[in-house]
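Quarterly update from the structural biology core.
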Amino acid sequence: MNRKSHIKSLSFYPLILTKMKKVILIFSLIASTAIIFAQQPRQQTPQQGQQQGQQQQVQQPRPPQWNPASTEWYYPQPPKVQPGKAAGQPPADAIILFDGTNLDKWESQRSPAERGGRPDPAPWKIVNGEMRVAPGSGGIQTKEFFGDCQLHIEFKSPAPENHHGQNRGNSGVFLQNTYELQVLDGDNNSTYVNGMVGSIYKQSAPMVDAYTKNGEWQVYDIYWKAPVFNGEGELLSPAMITVTLNGIVIQNNYILKGHTPYTGLPRYTPHGRLPLSLQDHGTEVAFRNIWIRHL
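Predicted structure, tokenized:
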């Protein structure tokens, strides 16, 4: 090759290098774009998303298939109890505490020392099938002891005369001789609300005033859950009460804070089953149709 040809061929090298650089740059751009695209999350069409969701649902484990019989039991059968023939009448398993004929289920609330060790019959009187407080004779209590129970009792306030407030038609139903549900004339008779008829005395006012009129029979239905104590006398669970007056709920699962004193604060003292008692507060309140069921 002569010198002239050689010089001519060399003049092409810069052009080739320039083209090669462009090609390399193009390939680099393409490769970078491909990498970036690969790193981007792929957008799915709605159909693809639905298919993927169906696949995931299919892959999820199914909950166990329960046999309905596995959550059913047939024993022991609850005992059959025949209800009363009319509303307020005792069911077949009730203990009749007063049916208008005698006070055989009751005794005086006087202490054994006051009794002199002798039986002390209930000093109240029966008039026209009603059991009436004999004012000044003291309270009465059942001979039998009770814990959890369902109690039905009806009462009637005497003529108000000149009495008012706590002195008018006052008595009380004492569950386990300790916890008082107030009995009081509620016919236009103003008093403190946690001492009115239907109150858990000095603890809980009734939710509503369901008393009707003086001289009419009022009906209490009481559902009592007794307090529970352990062997050391510690309270495990407090007492709870639900009460209806004339068919209307006035105490709804109220949890008692302790006993129901006239003065001071309530507290619990360990005890077991105890009698049901009725209070003599100096007025001739009448009672009838008293029955109770162990629960």
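The helical segments are 3-10, 13-39, 46-59, 112-115.
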